[in-house]
Amino acid sequence: MVCIDEVSVSDMLASPFYQPRASVIAYIDLKPVLYYNGAGIYQWSDTLDKQCLSYWLTHPELPPGWELN
To answer: Where are the domains of the chain?
Structure first.
């Protein structure tokens, strides 16, 4: 799923869960594309503190802990 996300890059990097999982994998317009290891989330924004583009790639279809009964 690709979406415009209200959670900014700064918000994700401030999270004690996501910050240690962040890796810069590429650049678009000199801005980093981040991948959060173990979460299946790719994130890019042209600014650190505003909306971003997010792509969630998970297998199986839901992140760990989100299983439906």
So the answer is: 2-56
